Amino acid sequence: MNYLSTLEISKDLGIPKRTVQSYCKEGFLPALVSLNKGKPCYKIEAHSYLSWKNKNFKGIKRGKFSKHTSSDREIVIDDLKSLAQIWLEWCASGKLTGKPLGKRTIEIYEYYFTLYIKGLGKYPSKPLISVDNLRNVLGSYLPQNYSTKRNIYDAIMSFTKYLIELDKFSSEIRNKLKALKPKRYLPAKKTSLNETQLKTMIAACDEMKTNYYGRLTNKVIVVFLANTGLRAFEFCKLKLEDINLEAKRVYVRLGKGNKPREIGINTETYELLLEYLKARLSFNSEYFFLNKDGKPFTVDRLNKKISGLANKLGFKGISPHSLRRSFVTINAAKGRPLNHLRIACGHADLSTTQGYCMTSTDEVVAAMREW
Fold first, then answer.
1. Is 47 left (phi over 0), alpha (psi -120 to 50) or beta?
2. Which end of the chain is less packed: N or C, by CB atoms within 10 Å?
3. Residues 99-127: tens digit of each pLDDT
4. Is 162 in contact with 96 (CB distance < 8 Å)?
């Protein structure tokens, strides 16, 4: 059971800690009391606090406790956001599904739940989570935005599961929401670079109009992703201690589903990393890959950098994930065992790795001529 301190509640309500303690002492705010060095110490159960806040606290006016100074709509949305924070804690701890969800999944849930709230508009119908509201939010996105629609749907379905655990939502309504599960009407866009295109992109990094560190950083990013097959968020989380150049090994601590794995570094990557480490000596950070300001890359920033480099060469739709597909495709064409590639990519199923192979018909025809 989650408990809040009087300090946490005072920050949430924007009132002095002593005021919260008075509410607890008077019994106005239900709390458990214990003695600490002879002084009363209060702790408040999180769900009871949310109910109390929604019922009694409507804002502060001139420093005094005041009722009904905010609209009901704002209070409902604020309450929904407060519940969402505890929902995410349940997801991270495994309390909701029995299995802790990875940090990246939690970030995705939080982001797309926020998109759902924004999609409700200024005057949404009540209740805020309903078949009509979810239909309207999902319907505001075009068919080609399937991933956005699906992520919003997944976040809401997980959140409603949490609400059912609290007896705040109906299982019958949740079953009706399942009918709104987005369907992919357009084929997924799967982009990758062939070996020639990849070499062109790497060479272009040396000719960019930026300083030495900028050119080197661009090059090391492309080479590292193309030769390791790491996911974007895995790349961004790498720290100095995770890359052992002497052993030519990379330890991926925060892989998908919180599953760690180890991968190797080839000679091209090894030599480039040595050069890069010398160039980043002026920065003091535990993270391995840093931008020109000495800050670690975010997934969004990494996506923009890769797509920007590719667009200048006329390679459209290229992302860090495209380089991950390129890693599988190029190495599979060279005869590397698919199971090795599966382990390197951190895939649980070999069929997932096979789906990353973007071998073209022309390549198959050319190869068959030599059979």
1. alpha
2. C
3. 898 888 898 999 999 999 999 887 777 78
4. yes
| CA 12/CA 16 separation, integer angstroms | 10
Tell whether the torsion through CA atoms of 319, 247, 283 and 279 is positive or negative: negative
The answer to whether 273 and 335 are in contact (CB under 8 A) is no
Q: How far apart are CA 291 and CA 219, in angstroms?
A: 12
Sequence-separated (6 or more) residues with CB below 8 Å from residue 101: 91, 92, 94, 109
The helix/strand/coil state of 56 is helix
Contacts of 120 (CB under 8 A, 6+ apart): 77, 128, 133, 137
Rounded CA separation 234/104 (Å): 10
Rounded (10°) CA dihedral 235, 239, 244, 248: 10
Name the nearest CA neighbour of 110 among 90, 88, 79, 83. 88
One-letter amino acid for residue 259 of the chain:
K
Greatest alpha-carbon pair distance for the chain in Å reads 88
Phi/psi at 252 (5° precision): -90, 105
Ordered by start, the domain boundaries in the chain are 71-180, 195-368
The whole-angstrom separation of Cα 347 and Cα 255 is 10
Residue 329, Cβ density class (10 Å: 0-12 exposed, 13-18 middle, ≥19 buried):
buried
Amino acid at 53: K
| Residue 254 · residue 103 · CB < 8 Å | yes
The residues facing 262 across adjacent strands are 251
Q: What is the pLDDT of residues 215-266, one digit of tens each?
A: 999 999 999 999 999 999 999 999 999 999 999 999 998 777 678 899 999 9
Burial 47-67 (b: 16+ CB within 10 A, else e): eebbebbeeebbeeeeeeeee
Convert the pLDDT of each residue in 8-33 to its tens digit: 888 888 777 887 888 888 788 888 88
